[in-house]
Amino acid sequence: MQESSMHRKDEIVRHYVAILALIIILVFAISILPDQRETGFAIPPPPVLPPPPDQGCNAPPNQPQCAYGNAQPQYDDNNCVIGYVCPQPPCIVVDRDTTLNSNQNGKCYEIRSGVTFDGGKYILAGNSSIGIKADNAVGFTIRNVKLRGYNTGIRVENSSSFLIASNDVNASGSGSVVDPKAGIKLYKSSSGTITANAIETNGVRIYGILASDSQSTLSSNVITTKGEDSHGISVVGRGSNVERNYVKAEQKGSHGIKISGASQSVVSRNFILTLSSNSPALVIDQSSSVSISRNEANTSGSSSPAIRIALSSSYTETDDKANSKGSFSDGVSIISSNGIIQGGVFSSSGFKSDGIALSNSDIDITGATITAAENALNLVGSKALANTIEARSPLFAIYADSASELNASSFVTGNSLVDLQGKSFALKDASSPQPPLGYVALDSVEAVSTGTFSKLLLHIRYPESALAGLSEESIKIWKYSSGQWLQSGFYTTAGIDVNLNKVSADINNFSSVFAALAAVKQAQCPAPPGQPQCTGPLLPVYDSNGCVKSYECVSCSVSSKRGDVNSDGRITSGDKDIALQIVSGLMNTPENICCIDISPHEGDGIVNVNDVGAIEKIISENATAGTCSNPADPEIANVVSCFSGSLRGDVNNDDDVTEEDVQLAKDVIAGRVPIDNLCGIDLYPLPSGDAVATDEDSYIISLISNGSIGSAGTCANPKDPRVQEGCSLPGPWSECAQAGDNWKRNRLEYVGESCKQTVVEEVCCPSDCGEDGQWSVCQSSIQSRFVYRCGAETSFACIQQAETRECATFADASALISQLERLIREALASGEDATAAQRKLEEAQKALIEGDYQSAAAAAKEGSQSISSKVQPQSDSTIVLAVLAAAVAVVLVGILTAFRKRSGMMKKEESPANLCAVCREYTTSGLKCAKCGGHVCLRHAVKRGGKVYCTNHAG
Questions:
Q1: Counting beta carbons within 10 angstroms of the beta carbon of residue 706, is it exposed (0 to 12), middle (13 to 18) or buried (19 or more)?
Q2: Do 625 and 618 touch, CB atoms closer than 8 A?
Q3: Which one-letter DSSP state was computed for residue 64?
Q4: pLDDT tens column, 512-525
């Protein structure tokens, strides 16, 4: 009796000592945590999930039939079976040339050196991580394989001299930051060619093509990624050639093409499109000597520049086209880099978006055309050698802060040509105030100085057509300031070049409007003569004094130049204007239209907008269309309507699909050239199009023109150019129906050289797994719900899963914005650069007003993180407290362990020797049980279903 009482007392003491030790450890942990009040950030709470059942487990889901091995159960924290996972099968070794002759399910293949693996366009489906792999192999080929249901379709490691071509890859699932998945993945491999593959990925961090520390050629691939943080093409490490690819990334954080940490890469003639926020189309990051040329980069999401170059050196960019449409999305964003931009067209149309934005960079810009919603060229702490830039911007053509410098030998804004030397200035087009009596303003700009610099050599061009009735010799630059016009006192030298139609002055003070003014000729004109009766347009003829001396009827003769509508021997913008007025009904159409009707090449008997576009092309390309009696093909992009027998892709209807058709299709898509019948352009989606001309159509035409894919058929008989000649297109998929334990669908396909007809079957998911639950109320920045998922990753079985997402309330976003405002004030007061944070503040405030609290909170957090902050050192008292707490905990645990051994309270089944094998981990505080979520065992461990669990635990 006394022993039993003593045993109970010992047990009570043991419990109290253990609890005291846990309390001391908890105090120690709290003492070393950072003070959350200083930063304003809270440790994120665990996800808010629906509570587990009070008693027992729900009935386990049906066990799937695995292609290899038995399905392995997956448990939750209550030891209930919540699903099954099929094991990864061993890969079939391919050591000789192999061609598949049927669909393969649940398999993977390992390719050895020197072999060709041809999928025969059959499906290789599975629910494992990799479909085809090649390790330490040389000189192999993988082609014509359709891969479905793998995390990574094709993986190549430590290999060289290989070809991966004409495969159809669909990868799904999810990757991680350290191990992203991909449709095609290369690692430490070289001299490979990845070409003409169709790749689609679905899931987080599943790239289209990932070339890591590999040097290969990636060309003519069609890639679509549909998950977050899933880049279309990513080149990391050694440089690669990335050419003629079509890349589309649909979700946020997904770049189109990204070159990171690479040198000597070539990125050329790619079409890139991203659709969501934080998704630039083309990214060059921490790379050197990268050549970028003739790419088309397009973005529509916020904070998504079309081209972003950061921390890179000695790059060259030639004739790129970049277009951004989202807010805070520059056409080109360059950060801490140096290089050259030659030619190209760059535009941005979103809120707070610049055409080209330079930050701490040194760039030589030549021959670029820039259009922007904010600043055409924005310099922040940068140098730019800006030569021949045509910039159009509603705000500033150029903006530079006090730390920036621009040396421009010729800068064009609208019709204004400007030479600049110095820094701290802004320049934009301006509406001229009413000029002095007797003068006409030809063009004007506003120059604003925010600092001091030596001079600004200002050139303003004027059109020849504007000189009617004006004295050209009188033209000079005037300054409008304080409500009056000044024609002297603000420059050192000035002059005019009548041959170049350019007037100049080296101005030395700013914050004013400068205009080219011309005096009206003072000659007294006689009364104009009477007007003749004309069936067509009637035009006045002026004398040298600007007086109307006669009128002429516009008509064409056999000797007239085609395009010379007013018969003055020249084809100018005046001819285009007359043709446009005829088309618009503002002027009568002449009886003889041979000099206007030039589109198509020999005319079609009517005057329409195609003729106006053709005249514009003749002017811009200095071409000739011959005379009325001897018409010539001016080799310009005249548009002709296609007909039923026209080749699809042959936009100019010359029976051949060439680069000229690609350019003409782009002109039609951009609205520069009108067209009525789209059948020759509308190819995407294959095979029959969607009745809309888009950039995807022009890309497919480019693939046909360069031979990457075959013919797309005719307008009357469209076909998929990737299908072999003579074979029919695949039939439609049947409805997904239950077949045994699985759900399957099938369709009719034609395969092989003889186009053999066969039925292709693949596993699919039921049409309805169940309705997803409603999102819970936003609590502690987390929402949760139950959802049903089905796919390759679930062995095509419906499985219920818990899903969480970040969220924010109005109060959350407001608090984070207030915190960011405080941090910005503190940063500015201490002399820190808060530019990035201020931009994020504007973005957060805009999102808050629009009711997008999640985006507002995210922007505010990013802004706060961009401001540098010093970590506050822990006080001496805190360190001493932590050391003492740790020491006390160790001593108490030692006493407890010795006491238990001495008293015999540690039973045999709890001894480290027996329980380590089943609980896996023994600590000085107790036993950590494998299935108790990391809790510490206080008493016994018991067996259930062959596994060991804690009967009671702390937590």
A1: middle
A2: yes
A3: P
A4: 888 889 988 765 67
